[in-house]
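Sharing a chain and its predicted structure for anyone who wants a worked example. Both blocks are below, sequence first, tokens second.
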Amino acid sequence: MEEPTKWKAILTKKFKRQLPLDVEHCSPLALRNIVLDVGTPDHILERIAQVYYDNDEILHDLVFCPNLSETTLAFIALTGSEEIKTFISSTRVLDVVFGDGEGGEGDQRGAKKKLNLQQIINSMTAPQKIKLALTAGKEARGLLVRESSKMISLSVLENPRITLGEVEFFAKSTNLNEDVIRKIGTNTDWSKKYSIAVALVNNPKTPVGISMQFVTRMTDRELGILEKSRNIPEAVRAASRNLLIKRKLGK
């Protein structure tokens, strides 16, 4: 073997764990070997969990990994199927608790560790939060949409499980990122629902250009409320007042 080739082989072997892994394109056998290798670091296992969050077979193997962090395990529990959640609860000492509970006072060493949903989200990295926003259930979506990061909050609106009821609730919220309100307002499937259009017009966070598009759809009752509201921009109030006058004169 020539000297350069020899050293390349030695260095590749020595530093193989530092070399980037293309987990998206690994063969099933290679991927399983990586997952089951006790020397695989958590950041690789985390990446595999993010890429294969909907593959129960791979997730089963991941749950058994001794190097898997509790944050990554919680991510799997929140995004995985009901079968995976049941599997985790029966094999690992971690309960994902939806609510404000911090664990009872009688908790002892060796008992299941309880983390509420907010604690889990707070411990996640930005990429984990984005992946969770795209796949998680209603309670997690309600927390993630309030994230200061635009990429995370907007990802919630891409979640295929989101309901019109949630969208309407978000459209009414005055503490969300303006980009979230803008995206709701520019989505024709959502904004064609009258209650969502009303919520957007009454929300001071809604950009004026979007609110003005919905004013003509408002009933006389809604226009009367809008023209008196001190929370919305003057341009929207004036447009509501003028439209209401025109309608009254036309009768």
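Comments welcome. Strands lie at 94-97, 113-116.
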